Amino acid sequence: MNIHEYQAKELLAKFGAPVPAGHAAMSVEEAVEAAKKLPGPLWVVKAQIHAGGRGKGSFKELPEGSKGGVRLAKSLDEVRAHAEDMLGNTLVTVQTGEEGKEVQRLYVTDGVDIAKEFYLAMLVDRATGRLAIVASTEGGMDIEEVAHETPEKIRTIIVDPATGLMPHHGRSVAAALGLSGALAKQAAKVTASLYKAFMGTDASQIEINPLAVTEDDELVVLDAKVGFDSNAMFRHPEIAELRDLTEEDPMEVEASKYDLAYIKLDGDIGCMVNGAGLAMATMDIIKLNGAFPANFLDVGGGADKEKVTAAFKIILSDPAVKGILVNIFGGIMRCDTIAEGIVAAAKEVDLDVPLVVRLEGTNVDKGKEILNNSGLPIIAADDLGDAAKKIVAQVKEAA
Ligand code: ADP
Ligand code: MG
Questions:
Q1: 142: which of 117, 175, 318, 344 is 20 to 30 A away, CA to CA?
Q2: Do residues 118 and 137 make contact, with C-beta atoms less than 8 angstroms apart?
Q3: Looking at 119, 195, 258, 262, which residue is catalytic?
Q4: Arithmetic mean of pLDDT, 334-341
Q5: Domain around 277
Q6: What does pLDDT average to over the chain?
């Protein structure tokens, strides 16, 4: 789960990170009011979308050459003009894809005189299974280029969970950023506050880019991207509340209501599977047969009729879906219960694409009987290979 920059900054400030003052705004008037609460004479108006690259982005509705989604303002009138330009318009950045994202919220914050921009992030390193701190002297809007062309300028420091963050980690970060003296101490302090925030919120990623050195030799967090482990959000209701559903895929939001693990993909074969491993195998075998899955969907172990129906509706609401492959292993769930669910759901949703079903496991014969007697045009498959072949053939034939 991701949150907006302003929410991330409010959160990190609670853990002691140095964040400039700022206020969120949902309208032009609110943006001007927000600016009035800050001292000036320099403000920054920032589009709040769940994507980076805003500074170098552009608005679809504005003439070419207009400024991006992060703008300096030297007066309240400029704040107003920027807010008018951004709110309700579509910001396209390297991370949004060409469709862009509509800006519904702004953040108005103190403008800072920047001497240097660093990069500092924390994430879970899959190779070591530990928290990794990533630091670079080359922060700012071109970090992707740095990673690509001069990867040696990016340093990684791994933290052993048995010891947690130690003073030497903070010193290593300061050294990686080329800092000494008071700024090195500040870097260690910032690192400690981010680590506390990461552990305390079950974060999966905290990215500060830039972490800036001001002309007064202060370290400040100028941009913050924070993501969390969704599976841990039940432990943090106050963070779960920060979720902005307008930033998420509507079908994925609908799926999450039913506790379905659904991720939309680019292909045309909808998949309904129980178990993440089986779902992965199903997607692989569809590809092996020359087609592409339209989604990943794990209905989970306890899939009942209601869940199966919801899953069907979600798959079918994707106009790209030209056929559905159901691949269910009845372990704890019996195949006849699943078959009943499939039949009821298929009737309820007016199935108008070919449906191939492969069932295996407890009460499989009863399950197949229910499917065969349903009067629905369900194509039964014997095994996974057979199922994939059949659905791919059906979809190709219809095309
Ligand atoms: P993004 O990464 O989405 O482009 P940032 O928040 O990093 O957005 O802003 C882009 C650039 O704008 C930063 O690299 C920094 O140079 C400048 N900037 C951002 N916030 C401020 C601020 N409060 N004061 C001065 N400059 C800022
Ligand atoms: Mg940034």
A1: 175
A2: yes
A3: 119
A4: 84
A5: 249-398
A6: 93
What is the tens place of the pLDDT at every residue in 50-86? 999 999 999 999 998 999 999 999 999 999 999 999 9
CB 20 less than 6 A from any atom of ligand 1: yes
Residue 116 is labelled as binding a ligand: no
> 10 and 52 in contact (C-beta within 8 Å)?
no
Question: Residue 51 sits in a domain of what CATH number?
Answer: 3.30.1490.20
> Which numbered ligand comes closest to the C-alpha of 110?
1
What is the rounded CA–CA span in Å between residue 167 and residue 305? 54
How many of the other CB atoms lie within 10 Å of CB of 54?
25
Give the chain's count of helices (H) and strands (E): 13, 19
Number of domains in the chain: 3
Q: What does 112-138 look like in DSSP terms, one character per residue?
A: --EEEEEEEEEEEETTTTEEEEEEES-
The reply to whether ligand 1 has any atom less than 6 angstroms from the CB of 140 is: yes
Q: Is there a domain that residue 11 lies in?
A: no
Same domain, yes or no: 277 and 340: yes
Q: Which of 240, 268, 296 is the C-terminal boundary of a domain? A: 240
Segment 342-361 mean pLDDT: 87
- Domain final position from 75, 94, 110: 110
What is the predicted pLDDT for the residue at 307?
83
- Which pLDDT band holds residue 349 (cuts at 50, 70, 90)? confident
Q: CA 154, CA 137: separation in Å to the nearest integer?
A: 8
Q: Is 119 a catalytic residue?
A: yes
Full-model pTM? 0.83
